[in-house]
Write a structure and sequence with these properties.
- With 296 residues, the protein is α+β, with helices and mostly antiparallel strands.
- The chain has 10 helices and 11 strands.
- The chain has helices at residues 110-118, 134-143, 149-169, 186-198, 205-212, 216-227, 231-249, 254-260, 266-277, 281-288; strands at residues 6-14, 17-24, 27-28, 47-54, 56-61, 64-69, 73-76, 82-86, 91-101, 124-127, 177-178.
- Helix 2 runs antiparallel to helix 3 (149-169) and helix 5 (205-212) crosses helix 6.
């Protein structure tokens, strides 16, 4: 008896693009939105990614077929009639995803540009895709229940998004596109997102390097080149930047400000702040709120 296919659902935003990824087995969705058997021709509103872990995989459309071998990836446009056949003893990964525009204050039109790359009348194939082990790590995080598995899986999906966009952007011939280390852009985004969202938690250089599948030495070089600061210097900069903003724009007590930017000890916060600005947090707040003429 045919049942309803169910999925885990992951969300993240890149610029003005809101991504929804579906992965098997949590959230029920209608049968018409996804196929139940690879052997049947079907269509759905989702974009679909197929990645050949090993062996081979064939994707058929009304106009022909594409064969994926180990390391190859294919993107099936939404509403394209297709079916997939996985060869015996082969392993593959399938992902469904959707993109919706969201309000964004920046200038980057990520959603529109990505859709232009994806909305073609045929399947796009990226050969030798996964140099960074994104799919291998994705499967590990799905198979073993780490405390932060959802965040790690979302990070892998973000990597895949950036690699796919990069691979599609660097060639006009989709059948021979190859993703290379030199062309990747996702690393900057992952680094920026990780540091900006976790500076107050005293984030780990080793953890971030592990997520990016690179050495800590290589990560240090990337951070230094991007920011002109070491990893620890960048964290300190963000702590002080956010602390000064809270002191200037809010009435939050100094002790709470210290905790909010990641200092357990108020004394440590005072020392660090004075080293950065040459005055105590209270003096800084008073100086920013002083009205010309001497009246506060």
């Amino acid at each position: 008896m045919m049942g309803i296919t169910t999925f885990d659902e992951y969300h993240f935003t890149v610029g003005d693009a809101f991504f929804t990824f579906l992965n098997a087995n949590a959230v029920p969705i209608p049968l018409e939105d996804h196929h139940a058997e690879h052997s049947q021709f079907h269509t759905h509103r989702w974009y679909e990614i197929f990645y050949a872990m090993n062996g081979s995989l064939e994707i058929f459309t009304q106009d022909g077929r594409e064969t994926l071998y180990q390391g190859d990836l294919a993107i099936v446009p939404s509403n394209l009639l297709h079916r997939a056949f996985i060869a015996e003893e082969s392993r593959s990964v399938g992902l469904l995803f959707d993109i919706q525009p969201v309000k964004y204050d920046g200038e980057e039109r990520y959603e529109e540009r990505f859709r232009q790359l994806l909305d073609r009348d045929r399947i796009a194939v990226l050969r030798s895709f996964d140099h960074f082990g994104s799919f291998k790590r994705l499967m590990i995080y799905q198979s073993y229940h780490y405390e932060d598995s959802d965040r790690l899986i979302a990070a892998c999906l973000q990597e895949i998004v950036f690699l796919v966009k990069d691979g599609l952007s660097t060639t006009t011939d989709m059948r021979t596109a190859k993703v290379t280390l030199e062309n990747t852009s996702y690393r900057d985004y992952i680094i920026e997102n990780y540091i900006n969202s976790r500076f107050h938690e005293n984030p780990s250089l080793e953890e971030l390097a592990g997520q990016l599948h690179i050495s800590t030495q290589q990560l240090q070089r990337i951070v230094k080149k991007r920011y002109g600061q070491s990893f620890s210097e960048r964290i300190f900069f963000l702590k002080m930047q956010n602390a000064s903003h809270l002191l200037e724009k809010t009435d939050t007590p100094v002790g709470e400000v210290a905790q909010m930017v990641g200092y357990v000890s108020v004394y440590s916060f005072f020392t660090a702040f004075k080293r950065k600005f040459g005055m105590t947090p209270k003096q800084y707040r008073d100086s920013k709120r002083k009205i010309p003429g001497g009246k506060a």
